[in-house]
Write a structure and sequence with these properties.
Structural class: mainly alpha
Number of domains: 2
Strand content: under 5%
Low-confidence stretches: none
Distance between the termini: 70 Å
Shape: elongated
Order of helices and strands: HHHHH
Number of helices: 5
Length: about 130
């Protein structure tokens, strides 16, 4: 094939077909991911949906999106919200306490109020630094 035989339209059409193919694969992966993450489906229902989307891909994908699309979106937003909440709790737990410096400051406050002795403060400080 010579370059002269490959027109602009042919190049455009090739890129368009490639884009549609990548979009199709992405859509199937999103559908299959949603099927396997669902708690309300039994193993048999998941297997039937999977077989249906493999044997009759276009019809299976369209039917799944038509019947489960809104729920699929809600489940995705719910998962994202839980991940965001888990991350915020992790950050609060890890960085919110202030680490060793906050432990030493609390210990110093207790020492100043006379709640703990100097030896107890030294042990607390050693533990906080390790």
């Amino acid at each position: 094939m010579l370059v002269a035989d490959f027109s602009f339209f042919d190049a455009f059409w090739s890129m368009f077909v490639f884009f549609i193919w990548v979009f199709w694969l992405w859509l199937l992966i999103m559908i299959w991911t949603d099927i396997f993450r669902r708690d309300d489906f039994t193993g048999w229902v998941k297997a039937l949906w999977l077989v249906f989307t493999i044997l009759v891909p276009i019809l299976g994908a369209l039917i799944y999106l038509a019947t489960q699309g809104e729920k699929m979106t809600k489940r995705g937003f719910g998962r994202a919200g839980r991940q965001r909440q888990d991350y915020a709790e992790y950050v609060q737990e890890t960085a919110g306490g202030g680490g060793g410096a906050a432990e030493i400051a609390r210990g110093k406050e207790l020492l100043d109020r006379g709640v703990i002795t100097q030896d107890e403060f030294d042990v607390l400080k050693t533990n906080a630094l390790t």
